[in-house]
Amino acid sequence: MAKELWKGNEAIAEAAIRAGCRCYFGYPITPQSEIPEYMSLHMPEAGGVFLQSESEIAAINMVYGASGAGARVMTSSSSPGISLKQEGISYMCGAELPGVIVNVMRGGPGLGTIQPAQGDYYQATRGGGNGDYRLIVFAPANIQEVVDLMQEAFELADKYRMPVMMLLDGMIGQMMEPVEWKRPALSPEDLPAKPWATTGTKGERRPNIINSLFINPDACNDHNRHLEEKYQRVIENEQRYEINDADEAEVLFVAYGTPARLARAAARLLGEEGIKAGVFRPITVWPYPYEALHEAASKESVRAVVTVEMSTGQMVDDVRIGVNGIKPVSFVGQAGGVIPTPREVADAARKALGR
Amino acid sequence: MNLPEKQITILAGHYGTGKTEFAVNLAIAMARDGRKTALADLDIINPYFRSCERSRELEKAGVKVYMTSGRGKADIPALPPDIASLFIDHSRQSVIDLGGDPAGARVLGFYEPQLEEADFDFWFVINRNRPENATVGKTVHYLRQTQAMSRQDLTGIVNNTHLGRETTADDILRGDEFAAQVARAAGLPLIYTVGERRFEQALKGQLKGPFFPIDIYMIKPWELSSEEGGHFAWLLEE
After folding, report:
1. Contact assignment for A170 to B16 by CB distance below 8 Å
2. I want to staple A107 with a disulfide (CB 3.0 to 4.6 A). Which of A113, A329, B98, B110 is the partner?
3. Are residues A313 and A203 in the same domain?
4. φ and ψ at A251, to 5 degrees?
């Protein structure tokens, strides 16, 4: 099929419909409003439900309800709106409900700015809600990857019965790139059955119960152990990453989303000066590909690891865990909607190398 | 290729058509032709990838830049009163870059009294590779919605069919043919077929619309490098 030019936010919405999602609940906020806008137009055409809720809190609870009833369902928002959804996300994890949550990040904290940022990394990977829980978090860096990961996000959500987050900075949501629709579009009939869902007993089985309340501490402890086992399976099977030009690299950049592209541009600038630079890009930021990063950093040629973020430094914690002291780790970034320039990133690498 | 004769040229289109890229290039081409030129970024829809982000380049070329409040970064931008001077200042030719979608064209309603007196063209920019422009029917539907929302009649079609960095001469040719069909269906002239300057030779003598060569100004942040920076050297200096 010929390539088309898609805006990141529109591509997310279209990819969800093609993944068989027929329920969207959300509330508009810049820089992701094209997602509900696109859904409002095209979800009804696909025979699905678009509902603009009265708030982000209502939207995530509608996701909880629809997911409990077995629907493939999603919501989307941007940073402050995602903060509002945290209670619902924690409840979905507790009740083991699949669903896809898209966060097109803007500058924070608070209302912040509508320009692109990555300040929600801790919230996405450490949990902004209560309790011991995890989300699978995908961090695409181009629109084709957005589209490809969207279907996978729904599949993994169903497979592990847990929410999956798509974590994008505003630049990825707002920019345009060519897209090829590689996978055939799914309809809800193509999706795997959910025998646990509350679809009505029809007098033939005991009722299914969707719940995150465990009064008995032993039962709640058992439930936590069960979730932890599941998260361990996710850690073992679902890590994704990409490494560019890391052979003989003196400096290894680590970045996700837009900064990964800045890092590649910086690597080209450094290459012009004869400094070899590689880029390690986590595609899942939870589970974080610690071992793969450790291996990349442990190469003899690597003298410095430089983390690039559009925040004041959050993922750098995971980079330090992965590198585990075998090489010096430093950080370069801008926050609040400012995008570092490739030159700034290259300068940080030179400084880390002592040049 | 002839540059606009009218005092004001207004550009509308679905987002992703590259109307902003064309607006910046058109204003710079007019200024380089020795005309007193202004560009007004009246996008009230989108706070990203806006013509006013290139103010410094435009001003360096001699183009006066008008923009919405908050330097185009506001969530709900306002229209500063100085924009109205565009309609009065007959010594200057202006390009107005509207926001994407029919909703973006709504802003013209505000200037309806001024437009009644003004000498202007109103062009619709299309990109065949955008899903919303995929068929003649869809495109003409969008075009009519844009007219309804702006309360103005369009006066021409501009073909800017592209695929970003992956654009080929073939894309532009197919877009040119498509735009000619849209123009016929809408009863409007095809004003230009837009393409990067590097395609000029390959497309010579094959196009239905006069070729308007452009340089890429609306680059992405990671496209700033010493070789590609070119006229953006100032951004790297900051």
Report:
1. no
2. A113
3. no
4. -125, 135
Asked if B221 has any chain A CB less than 8 Å from its own CB, the reply is yes
Range of the domain at B201: 8-237
Interchain contact, A178 vs B129, CB within 8 Å:
yes
Over residues A211-246, the pLDDT tens digits come to 999 999 999 999 999 999 999 999 999 999 999 988
Q: In the structure, what pLDDT confidence band is assigned to residue B233 with cuts at 50, 70 and 90?
A: very low
* Interchain contact, A178 vs B226, CB within 8 Å: no
Q: Is A202 left (phi over 0), alpha (psi -120 to 50) or beta?
A: left
CA dihedral of residues A63, A69, A72, A78 (deg, nearest 10)? 0
Domain containing residue B79: CATH number: 3.40.50.300
Pairwise CA distance, residues B218 & B23, whole Å: 11
Q: Three-class SS of residue A267?
A: helix
Element (H, E) at A233: helix A217-237
Same domain, residue pair A228 and A290: no
Across the interface, do B222 and A31 touch by the CB < 8 Å criterion?
no
Query: In this complex, is the C-beta atom of B226 within 8 Å of any C-beta atom belonging to chain A?
Result: yes
Which domain CATH number covers A317?
3.40.50.920
Give the strand pairing for A4-7 and A176-179: antiparallel
Q: What pLDDT is recorded for position A1?
A: 66
Query: What are the tens digits of pLDDT across the range A281-336?
Result: 999 999 999 999 999 999 999 999 999 999 999 999 999 999 999 999 999 999 99
Contacts of B163 in chain A (CB under 8 A): 3, 5, 178
Q: How many inter-chain contacts (A to B, CB under 8 Å) are there?
A: 77
User: Range with the lowest mean pLDDT among A141-150, B36-45, B184-193?
Assistant: B36-45
- Closest by CA to B171, choosing from B189, B191, B190, B195, is B195
